[in-house]
Amino acid sequence: MRCVYCYGDGGEYAGKGMMSEETAFRAVDWLIENTKSSEKVNICFFGGEPLLNFTLMKKA
């Protein structure tokens, strides 16, 4: 996906950045919209030290 906020910065392990609030909300909205209502949804935060932006994790 080559996300610019990724710890790998599209494969270049040097970029610094944070996922925007808009992107986080869109990702969660997409997950909910594309999951059957009978399915249990689990979200796993992985890579890029998501706990550094814990406020955004709680909002999303």
From TrEMBL:
Sequence intervals crossing the membrane: none
InterPro entries per the UniProt record, alphabetical: Aldolase_TIM, rSAM_sf, Sulphatase_maturase_rSAM
Coiled-coil segments: none
Top-level taxon: Bacteria
Lineage: Bacteria, Pseudomonadati, Nitrospinota/Tectimicrobiota group, Candidatus Tectimicrobiota
A GO MF term: oxidoreductase activity
Cleavable signal peptide: none
UniProt cross-references to PANTHER family, sorted A to Z: ANAEROBIC SULFATASE-MATURATING ENZYME HOMOLOG ASLB-RELATED, RADICAL SAM DOMAIN PROTEIN
Name listed for the protein in its UniProt record: Nif11-like peptide radical SAM maturase
